[in-house]
Amino acid sequence: MDIVKEIHRRASQKQKLIVLPEKDDPRIQGAAKVIQKEKIARLMTIGRGDLDNKKIDAFTQVFFELRRHKGISLDEAKKTMSIPLYYAAMLVRTGEADGFVAGAAHSTPDVARAAIYCLGVDERIKTVSSSFIMVVPNSELGEKGVFIFADCGIVPEPSSEQMAQIAVSSSELAQAILGIRPRVAMLSYSTKGSAKGLLVDKVREAAALAKQLKPDLLIDGELQADAAIVPEVARIKDPQGTLGGRANVLIFPDLEAGNIGYKLVQRLAKARAIGPLMQGLKHPASDLSRGALVEDIVDTVAATALRA
Fold first, then answer.
1. Which fold has domain 3-120+284-307?
2. Contacts of 307 by beta carbon, 8 Å cutoff, 6+ apart
3. 125, 279 in Cβ contact below 8 A?
4. How confident is the model at residue 14 (pLDDT cuts 50, 70, 90)?
5. Which one-letter DSSP state was computed for residue 281?
6. With 70 as the cut, is the pLDDT of residue 81 above it?
7. pTM of the model
């Protein structure tokens, strides 16, 4: 089964309304044509000229109440709500849309701020992070070549508590979008004590905390990447492990490792990278790489619609 086509098919059945607040970007325009032709989702593409003044006024009041504890003024709130990125996020918060996708013309911090400020953080998870669906061609590893990688875009140096929350978020995303049972590996340069150090301790503690947060979660760590995804290596390095080298959700110890890891797999293995999909928010939102292609935007919209 082609997992990307399956994501598109399932998204088309839901017909959720996704906002794209970067209307003037040619790649967004091209993706919108594909999405509408294939009926993957309903779309609202907006730029500065498309904002409704009455909505701006209404959103200003909501945003002012959300951020007044940070000292924001009404004038500052109105200026912010006049930015399409924030306007789009507020459309989602107020229920006028089901999710938003941006990042073709904005940096990840810009998209993350709009999402966090407007959508709010899920109190159960507490950490906003991001993940990629990685589709590796001609591979039987993971879930027949499909993996979740996290966090690749938001949290630079997660604590063990944050790593645990990222693991839970990523496992739930795997279930929601891919319909698979997540098998989560907490990655390290050590496998079950083969090396020592504070970084190893952090990963090991994160695995234990994730298990406390979600007792039925199939998770193990600390694990080196080969012990996590290659059964033959796992039999040597971790013969008593619960994953047996069959992990399909990989949690990286920090943003540097995660970002480098996904880009290497994308370029060297010619993998399809869908995302980054933001996690830990109250409503669905996704970032885009500023180097995203039309097909990347289409895939990310489909995945975002599936989460709505």
1. Rossmann fold (3.40.50)
2. 99, 173, 176, 177, 277, 284
3. yes
4. very high
5. B
6. yes
7. 0.90
